[in-house]
Design goal:
About 35% of the residues lie in helices and about 20% in strands. It is of the alpha+beta class. GO terms for molecular function: CDP-diacylglycerol-glycerol-3-phosphate 3-phosphatidyltransferase activity; CDP-diacylglycerol-serine O-phosphatidyltransferase activity.
């Protein structure tokens, strides 16, 4: 079955030419932390940190202290931190009432002579309906790109880590483009305010400004005028997307539609949007070999052991497993033939947060997009698309894939995955209840 998806976007993408040795693949979370601190220490012109959150813990403190030290040593440094407005003003899920990271930001600003502004971006008036999910740290003329946020587990500060992807790309036009969006598309908005200063406005009072910002972001894009279309060699294209049918979501679907031989897809939360499922089905019908890597439910960052008190959030990993089991059952003949390979990632008590795509021997997509309905409709997302038409960057690509598959096991049949009967009683009871009142479909759309 051919794909009927119109490839209207990929041929028009402008990319920045890059040499193969300008893209470094980092080998893990600890190396990511080391590289980030090293880049901050060496910075001479600019540091733009963009993440869902900068957490008040040991690793977060280490990064924040490094930023203040860099500013104190080089006052001319342009340092900006951008995080999600709503996420910064609440505590950890399930940890009771807490002041949130914004109180810490304010204390840090009051206790330092050096100024490191922290801006909060409200993508929606409620966190449930959209957050700032942009990724990428711009440091001088390089971009350090990962789906990770900044805390102990993402940075492997102690025993546990959360597995993600980590790339350092040395390319000034790309760095300029990503800074430009933050500086002119986010920070200047009336909806965006500094979280490190006291007397924050209420989200309610910003409702109209938030609506204006979201409307503008739906039509925003990275400035790629310094790039070119149809580069003959290796190139990287930044993509931006928020809302229904956005350019990033369309590019993801077009990438799957372009696959002729092999497609690898990673997501921590198996809950594929309908357009992605359709393109995967068409790719399978074309004979494309597909590998999907997803975290085992115990490697999900929302997983809570059955020995601990039940919280509603603990049901999420089981919802994702139910979705994966349905998908596997529907495609069991292709699993049997080896055309479709579903891989579960698990490494002890560590967690899995990895996302992205590899298409044939040409395209590699770096992104924080979870490839789920929420990412396709609600959150503000971005990605970097590496296009390698001459196969100049295949070895680093293979090395990264090998590291991802190292802790995976292949699902031979859908029967390997648990059902409601095998779930902890509290989880099973909750899932039966939401199924009876038909809330399950809504949950899949927003989680």
């Amino acid at each position: 079955m051919p794909s009927f998806f119109k490839r209207s976007l990929l041929p028009k993408l402008r990319g920045f030419p890059v040499t193969p040795d300008a893209i470094d693949v980092l080998c893990g979370a600890a190396e990511f932390r080391r590289c980030l601190l090293e880049q901050i220490f060496q910075a001479t012109r600019r540091i733009y940190i963009i993440a869902l959150y900068l957490q008040q813990d040991e690793a977060g403190q280490e990064i924040y202290d490094a930023l203040h030290a860099a500013k104190a040593a080089r006052p001319e440094l342009d340092i900006v931190v951008v995080v999600d407005w709503l996420r910064a003003q609440r505590g950890l899920i399930g940890a009771g009432k807490q002041p949130g990271n914004s109180a810490w930001y304010q204390a840090m600003t009051q206790s330092h002579d050096s100024k490191v502004p922290v801006y909060g971006v409200p993508v929606q008036t409620r966190e449930l309906f959209g957050v700032l999910h942009l990724k990428g740290f711009v440091i001088d003329d390089s971009v350090l790109y990962s789906g990770a946020s900044l805390n102990n587990v993402y940075l492997h500060k102690f025993d546990k880590y959360r597995f993600d992807r980590y790339h350092l790309i040395h390319n000034k036009p790309l760095a300029d483009s990503m800074q430009h969006l933050v500086e002119h598309g986010l920070v200047t908005s009336k909806a965006v305010h500094r979280l490190d200063l006291p007397d924050l406005p209420s989200t309610r009072s910003l409702r109209n400004d938030i609506g204006d910002l979201r409307s503008r972001l739906k039509h925003a894009a990275y400035d790629t005028n310094a790039g070119s279309v149809a580069n003959p060699g290796l190139s990287v294209s930044p993509l931006l997307g928020v809302g229904k049918n956005n350019p990033l979501s369309r590019a993801i679907c077009e990438l799957i539609a372009s696959a002729q031989h092999q497609l690898t897809l990673c997501t921590p939360y198996f809950n594929l949007p309908l357009p992605v499922t359709r393109e995967i089905n068409r790719a399978l019908a074309r004979g494309v070999k597909i590998d999907v890597v997803v975290g085992d439910k115990t490697a999900n960052d929302f997983y809570i052991p059955p020995s601990e008190p039940f919280k509603v959030i603990a049901a999420l990993p089981y919802l994702y497993e139910i979705s994966l089991r349905r998908f596997a059952k529907r495609h069991q003949p292709m699993i049997d033939s080896g055309q479709l390979n579903l891989h579960l990632w698990r490494d002890g008590d560590n967690t899995y947060h990895l996302k992205g795509m590899w298409v044939d021997q040409r395209y590699t997509l770096l992104t924080g997009n979870n490839l789920n309905p929420r990412a396709f409709r609600l959150d503000l997302e971005n990605a970097l698309l590496i296009d390698d038409p001459k196969g100049e960057w295949l070895e680093p690509r293979r090395t990264e894939l090998a590291s991802i598959f190292r802790h995976t096991s292949r699902i031979e049949g859908y029967q390997q995955l648990d059902t409601l009967l095998g779930y902890p009683p509290a989880v099973g009871k909750f899932l039966r209840r939401v199924s009876r009142v038909r809330i399950e479909r809504l949950l899949y759309r927003i989680l």
